Amino acid sequence: MAKPLIALLSDFGTRDHYVGVMKGVVLGINPEVTLVDLTHDLPPHDIGAAAHELASTYRYFPAGTIFLAVIDPGVGSARRGLAAEVGDWRFVAPDNGVLTGVFQDLAPRKVVDLTERRYARPTVSRTFEGRDRFAPAAAWLSKGVHVTALGRPVSDYMLLDLPAPRVEETRLVGVVSRVDRFGNIITNLDRKSCERLTEGVGVLRLVIDGHLIDRIVSTYSDIGVDEVAALFGSTDHLEIAMRARHAAGHLHVEVGAEVELVRV
What we know:
Layout: E1 5-10, H1 18-29, E2 34-39, H2 47-57, E3 66-70, E4 81-86, E5 89-94, H3 100-105, E6 110-113, H4 129-142, E7 166-167, E8 171-179, E9 185-190, H5 191-198, E10 204-208, E11 211-213, E12 229-232, E13 237-241, H6 247-251, E14 258-263
Parallel strand pairs: 1-2, 1-3, 3-5
Antiparallel strand pairs: 4-5, 4-6, 7-8, 8-9, 8-14, 9-13, 10-11, 10-14, 12-13
Helix pairs in contact: 1-4
């Protein structure tokens, strides 16, 4: 039988002990679990970026994977902790909207508030619930405990108002969702929406934050020296890139900037 798998997502970085101690708590409960770092370099407190990252990646993990997502600017407050069963995967996270993208992709089958104290550490810190509530809950799930054992069902969980592409007759309007470490500008314009816009005919004009992008290419190596071009990245979203250069810095584009794809 395959070993249980927990994937961790946070804004903690790796300079401090936070990620390591969460792993220690998990392994103390279930030493047989496999731990995978999805990322710990999200912008601090950026719940929207975390929601996008989680929604873009969870389907690439095996059925049964548990995602431990701790982006928690409301730590220690009255906000709830959640465990959810969505499709073939389970999630543990604060109730602050970080699961929005996943829930929009697939309706959750079960969502509970983490109220059952036996599945938390005996003392819960007001400043580090990732260690004391969320990591133990994920670990107990990996031991075979059912989501419903962790607390009472809830249906009023928080959802973010994530920007969605606006489809018009001859254009598609969206925003920059994130900028990766290579400087690639990832938008919220997905391939299916873009293909519907073309309807098999016409030329597309792409404008991002006032900059006209002349070409849509297939891969980074198709981009000329000092050229800025667009392509569909690994998550099937349109992105703007340069070859071995930081496109966002070159164009002075930030998250939230408007993107417009027009059929002409």
